[in-house]
Write a structure and sequence with these properties.
heterodimer; A: Dipeptide-binding Protein, domain 1; Dipeptide-binding Protein, domain 3; 17 helices; B: mainly alpha; 15 helices; 76% helix; globular
Amino acid sequence: MNRCRLVCLVSLLFSLVACHEEKQASSSPRPPGKASYGDAIVVGSIGEPSTLLPLLASDSASRDVAGEIYNGLVRYDKNLKLEGDLAERWEISRDGLTITFHLRKGVKWHDGQPFTSRDVLYTYRITIDPKTPTAYAEDFKQVKRAEAPDPFTFRVTYAKPFAPALESWGVAILPAHLLEGKDITKSELARQPVGTGPYRIKEWVAGQKLVLESNHDYYEGRPYIDRYVYRIIPDTATMYMELKAGGLDMMGLTPVQYQRQTTTNEFLSRFNKYRYPASAYTYLGYNLRHPLFSDRRVRQALTSAINKDEIVQGVQLGMGQVAHGPYKPGTWPYNPKVKDFPYDPARARVLLAEAGWRERNGDGILVKDGKPFSFTILTNQGNDQRLKCALIIQQRLKKVGIEVKIRTIEWASFLKNFIDKGDFQAVLLGWTIGQDPDLYDVWHSSKTGPKELNFVGYKNAEMDRLIERGRGTFDQEERRRCYFRIQEILAEDQPYTFLYVPDALPVVSARFRGIEPAPAGIMHNFIRWYVPKNEQVY
Amino acid sequence: MLSYLAKRLLLMIPLLVGITIITFGVIHLAPGEPVEMQVAMNPKVSAEARERLRKFYELDKPLHVQYGKWVSRLVRLDFGRSFAPDGRPVITKIRERLPVTISLNLIVLILEFALAIPIGVMAATHRDGPLDRWTTVFVFLGFATPLFWLSLILMYLFGVKLGWLPISGLHSLGYEVHGLWWQVGDLTKHLVIPISVATFGSLAGLSRYMRTGMIEVLGQDYIMTARAKGLPERVVIYRHALRNALLPAITILGLSVPGLIGGSVIFESIFAIPGMGKLFMDGVMARDYPLVMGVLVIGAVLTLLGNLLADLAYAVADPRIRHGRERAL
């Protein structure tokens, strides 16, 4: 929030300067005008959605569009707290085993049929059906019993308390009356979805665009913007030019575009830029099975030798913040007191010397047992930011006597030949930060097998216990305590060097009003965005 | 002639089988499977879910069984369903993309021939003169310029700075409400930059062939005879010389047939044109085996047909070849 205020302040300053020079266009925020229906928003996407049955989709384009068409039982509000969506409210039994959802009455599918608990039950059943080719059955498999005692009550019982369970009911609820008894993989609904959401599909021109139109009967009220046009533009340079030429209303900027190419008054009078931390982090992960990295002091030394601020500046042009752990700063599980090893090359040398690494043959490279300290950072091809990161790290580590080589590898081969086989020394990759803080898949010691996500091989008994306790209770205070301690452990153990959390840098045409930046980003109140009548263009 | 044609067509069958076996093998050699590409690094996906997906796509079966199933579908002209999450029939996906790609490529091909032939002829008749040199510079500039770069420059100039032309896509938003002529104009505007750039890049090859062919023909005795007869230079060049110099152009035309269904990924990405190139590339990246095989088989058939067509056209155009072959048969 502070950052947003700062941006406002800066743009205010800009406008003051602009007022002094009369020739320049003013970039002061436009007056709010009157909220009115109409107009369209044109959004660019590099990928085309694959299917609008979210259960079967695995790409972000599908998820984005489906998000406007469907609702779940619950959703995250603008402060990233769970709130009721199709469920008006819910109760969790005292033993934490049973969740009872009370469904909203009067919600209608886009074809006019009423939404009931039958739809929820169907969504659950089709998800766990072994014949359904979905990747997302895992959370629902924890359910021991699901029942719909009446049309507006839905109850699930778990074998043991499972905190991420609540979030898992945020999945898109599918219309039972159109799908029951049919083969979902061949359903027309993949292209012509019927949901309960604020927008419905109007037209899908393969490879070019999707047009959604507002659902006048939406349970939260008719969205102000009539049409949502999703244009497929695979090239980001083209997308940026379309934005400047007025062909797009919204896109995410790169740090260079944000800092250097969109600072003219002309641009600022036509667009509003936003900036907030993205839900992702970039890290350098060490293969803990490799003898080089099995000593904790070595990993601590590596982190001390890396200047994270410099990486944020160099790679993100300052558009991001240093990461110390796996959570997003400002969210409830984030422990602000945890700081890992600050940049201190002298300390790095001391730690390395303690671990037995000394300079012996005058070439500046540290040696132990006759072997030089040299390793390769692997990263996936085509991600320029990660490559830049690796280059900066290479320079810094050289200064403490460690030789780093960098290799970029095509994604499929990267996974198959290196990650799956555990055949790597260090990797530079990123994770998205889930809204539920559960870390089971990435950090639990049971997830170190092939094709599992704890591929660095981190095993820590205390960590395992904390992860299990954290996901085994619905008490947020209790969970917070677990995750705070987990961050302390990670900061001490340094299985990764957590590098940075980048900023999301969306830009939206200035004709759209009602945008409220919040921890969840800007899209949370999209149905309340509007364009004053006199500024509508479509 | 007919038995020759039948023989050539029959020979294509084993060739096609060989091509499919090799391509099928090669795609499966590439690391990564469709399932991996969809779910890798996703914490929500369990090992059980992977197996479920593999089973759904029948990836758990041995390779020769997968190939057998694919071929048995293909002989019934069924290309199967895509391995992308939409699971739509491959043929539908190709059919969506094909018209755009073929039309664009045809226009570019026509423009290429319409421009490159006169350029080649002019360069040959003005050999070593300034016209020859400037056209050489021009066509090689087109050949050597990275087209994505040129495209971006033109898009910026005409789209952003001057605002005369649209930047990407095929239609303006809301074009449906306008009349036919407005729509045609709109489409034309969208295509000006992509087609100009593609044509510019394609001129070098053909115009050089034409120039060389023409220079060779102009040195022949019968041209001297024609000139000695006192025929006007125009008639000598366009009636007597050009016909013979066009032979290599026919070969190139035949070889261009399979290219008609192929698109350039970079080109289609930059202009946001939904064509075959992007479809194929995305298919390869996602290891969408049925889609990749579908596009490749169609490409292979067209290549074989194109070669046959070129041979036949050659025989029609050149009596030496025609008679030579009949003797051999």
